Amino acid sequence: MNEELLKILACPKCKGKVIWKEDRIICPKCKKYYPLKEGIPVMLIGEARDYEEKNE
After folding, report:
1. Helix (H) or strand (E) holding 8
2. What is the CATH number of the domain that holds 19?
């Protein structure tokens, strides 16, 4: 994921910062992730899925 793109992206739900992890765009505040489809981030609230960080 392009670092410049990550700097301008925000969670559509809470407007918070997002991070790139495990091939997903994750909002740590909302505990949601947004998928990529054909390499394009789908930043729609309806596409968000629950994200649980794995404790390894």
Report:
1. helix 3-8
2. 2.20.25.10
Residue 6 CB contacts under 8 Å (≥ 6 apart), including other chains: 18, 19, 20, 25
Residue 31 CB-half CA count within 13 A? 5
In which residue ranges of the chain is pLDDT below 50? 55-56
Any domain includes 55: no
Q: Indicate whether 56 belongs to any domain.
A: no
By the 8 A CB rule, do 30 and 48 touch?
A: yes
Max CA distance (Å), the chain: 30
pTM score, whole prediction: 0.78
* Structure token digits, residue 24: 């997903």
Domain count, the chain: 1
